[in-house]
Amino acid sequence: MQTYRAIAIAALALATPVAAQQLGTATPSPPPEGVAPDKGAANPKGQYAALDALPDWGGIWFVMGGRPGAGAPEPKLKGEYLERRLAWVAEVRAADGVARRTRSNCSPPGMPRIMRLGQYPYEFIFSPGRVTVNQEAWMQTRTIWTDGRGHEEDPDPTFMGDSVGRWNGQTLVVETRAILDELEIDTGWPHSDEFRLTERIRLDPANPDILINEMRMEDPKALAEPFEVTTRYRRDRYGKLIEFQCAENDRNPVNEEGHTEYN
What we know:
Layout: H1 2-15, H2 18-21, E1 60-63, H3 79-94, E2 122-127, E3 130-135, E4 140-145, E5 162-168, E6 171-177, E7 184-186, E8 189-190, E9 196-204, E10 207-218, E11 227-236
Parallel strand pairs: 4-5
Antiparallel strand pairs: 1-11, 2-3, 3-4, 5-6, 6-9, 7-8, 9-10, 10-11
């Protein structure tokens, strides 16, 4: 047992990034540009009272309605991205309407699609300097910084992107960039590394149990014009998120038919 434990510890050490191993001696991160050293999300003490002025988004939220049908607005692609879209449409038609998977079952759809999932709910948590969006799907967490910082200069693209927001009255205005360009606006609708998303999220004045998210998408490489769509969510005041466990081996390949091959 001792030998096995020693081997396991050695393997873990080799697999750990150098930066993580040296965390104890590394230079501390500086405050984000635009945020005072003793303010912002990293220094919440003394700032909680200000949260009372924010709107009530308590509970969990479900997307209202099903998938967009015929007549729903569609992005207007251009150039190579339009060619990719047309090739995808032809492939789906040839497969009797079945779209081939291009990613693992356990790979989340990322932004902006993950904010429009009809099956799994969302939870919005306010804290000083940030809004945290917990999503039941894939147990994803999205951080929207609201402490005055700007976007990172050269961020690594991620599934959730780099989200910076501000409160305009009772409306949360969010700009997200640095989203992985291998993701899609929606199934079969590609975008580039210059994709930008702006969201304006607010309660419906006529019904406080409905949350409105006005989404504007811009991409100078892929979109001929900005694409706008509105998503509405209904509140379940006393509901809670359920654990979503997806433990598929991420090294299992996806074959040409779009099915995961298990090794």
